Amino acid sequence: MKLDELDTPALIVDLDRLRANIERLQRYLDAHGIANRPHIKTHKVPQIAQMQLAAGAVGITCQKLGEAEVMADAGCTDIFLPYNIIGEAKLARLTALARRINLSLTADSAFAVHGYARAAQEAGLVLDVLIEFDSGMGRCGVQTPAEAATLARQIVAMPGLCFRGLMTYPGNAQADLFVRETRALLAADGIPIERVSYGGTPTMWQAHERSEVTEYRAGTYVYGDCATLYAGAMTPDQIALYVLATVVSRPTAGRAILDAGSKALSEHPSAQNDYGLILEYPQARLTRLSEEHGWVDLRACANRPPIGERVRIVPNHVCTAVNLFDHVFGVRGDEVEVMWPVAARGQVR
Amino acid sequence: MKLDELDTPALIVDLDRLRANIERLQRYLDAHGIANRPHIKTHKVPQIAQMQLAAGAVGITCQKLGEAEVMADAGCTDIFLPYNIIGEAKLARLTALARRINLSLTADSAFAVHGYARAAQEAGLVLDVLIEFDSGMGRCGVQTPAEAATLARQIVAMPGLCFRGLMTYPGNAQADLFVRETRALLAADGIPIERVSYGGTPTMWQAHERSEVTEYRAGTYVYGDCATLYAGAMTPDQIALYVLATVVSRPTAGRAILDAGSKALSEHPSAQNDYGLILEYPQARLTRLSEEHGWVDLRACANRPPIGERVRIVPNHVCTAVNLFDHVFGVRGDEVEVMWPVAARGQVR
Predict the structure, then answer these.
(1) Given an 8 Å threshold on Cβ–Cβ distance, is A141 in contact with B295?
(2) Which of A217, A249, A259, A286 to mutate: most B Cβ within 10 Å?
(3) d(C-alpha B78, C-alpha B57), whole Å
(4) Over the stretch B26-85, which tens digit does the pLDDT of each residue have?
(5) Is the same domain home to B181 and B266?
(6) B255 in a domain, yes or no?
(7) Is residue B229, in this structure, part of any structural domain at all?
(8) On the CB side of A276, how many CA atoms lie within 13 Å of its CA?
(9) Do B288 and B197 fall within a single domain?
(10) What pTM was estimated for this model as a whole?
(11) Neighbour-count burial of B121, counting CB atoms closer than 10 A to its CB (0-12 exposed, 13-18 middle, 19+ buried)
(12) Is residue A200 part of a domain?
């Protein structure tokens, strides 16, 4: 099938760029002795996870238990869940999953740790646990090295659990300091910190500047998006994903309406209050989205697309845009080579 | 199954409120002699469309051709598509659909009209077409009554097409004026405007103040959301949908993290820059979303939820939140009575 024959809106991935992006980060992390554990939340496609593993990733990262189940079904055997798993229903699924793959977990509270311990003991398993700490984002995570050390000692004391290390997002100088202080606190107890997991595509090329990191979780790097471009972590010719859309209305000389709105691109505004980059018309501004319409201000464009013309849009935030589609089409040149189900999409639980 | 047994995040609809919302708008539109043609883009659930039809709707409205195909498969026999259908692939599907149901279409350009005419002639069908006009939103639609009249004359002149009337969103006083002026222009040609279709939940209770409207398209009214509350179109005890979420972290005294982020609630900020209303903690502010985390500022709350507590979140914009889930659970009291697939979700084309 030719790209021209695909109807819009459609999620398109450039297969050569995808492969190059996967290999580029792998080479970099290999060169610096950092384990690569890519985050599949961006693509949610088992076939891409397999490409990442084939390139040398030690395992993958999933944000939701349901994503991990889909990836395990697809043959991924080493999965990290950097997310507190709370509640009996999920804990039962967690131990079922831990029986069939190498699973490592995260906790930032005694509540989460007690749940894991109870589930591990009931299932007769040992679960690997990392502690999440806050390196400045102000989201989850223990707040101080003292809290981290206390929680680590609780994990160590619990049958069924094995304390493995520390996890944060993003990885930065503050994170290194936190890890060193926690390591010093735990040294007295003889508790080692084996794994230190940092993440984030915007800062991926600075991973080697971190003194403590042992593994890196990047997600967006496979595709790239406007945020990655603005962060300087990828160049325009490395962006591997776009939403193909059609001009469905030209109500005025200065305005075009596309068939891709907030249900195709998601609603993540850029700092310039745009909703994506139109590759064919870089002077155009995607200024507003309604659910199924993208509003394009063409006033700065010398050439302007007529109704029926198709354009490629790089989303501001690719992870939430991809999450809206059931399929992604892999293309090479003008040939559509593959249609992959976004198999872990909708795995919200 | 009990509501307590449902894992989170989950999309929950209160079945009694849903029914009451459907019946309330139907009664109001019936009382004013306005045809009810609800927009299914909000729920995307065939069973709810059937409830709307059973209550007295003349047909339904779908925004995408794919949604209309799903609803036709589910037995809906009268569908309005208020969206320019552009491109040969969609036109082929359009005529296939028009063969099996009563379908009416929209155009705002000669380009769209020519496509419909070509498709109708090739299929040996007559297609009903309404003209979209801009009543101030600045999205799609012809800009002036003169443009509308010119396009109407083109439609009338084309074999295979039947000009039915005018369509806009939202319906307002400006819309009435536009319709009257267009009617006057077309009177000389003996071209009647039979159908005048307005839409929008925020303004639905003002529909009877419109002099020209013959049918009304509301979508959000079945569920309601924060935007509907702020617009004064529904009261808190009429809101029929919420996202059930769990507190997964309490990193500080003033902060809770929920397992519902932008992939469960969508990223539509309110004027106050909140991302939803937490029913159990109205003083709490859902200030930020990452993909799978909701950040809750609890500092104004006297009582604060511990880890593991479940809360109900009313989304800011229910249409984009619902679009993220594959299923919605229908509850009555604490009993989960039904699980409906969000069958038309992902029908982006």
Answers:
(1) no
(2) A249
(3) 10
(4) 999 999 999 999 999 999 999 999 999 999 999 999 999 999 999 999 999 999 999 999
(5) no
(6) yes
(7) no
(8) 32
(9) no
(10) 0.97
(11) middle
(12) yes
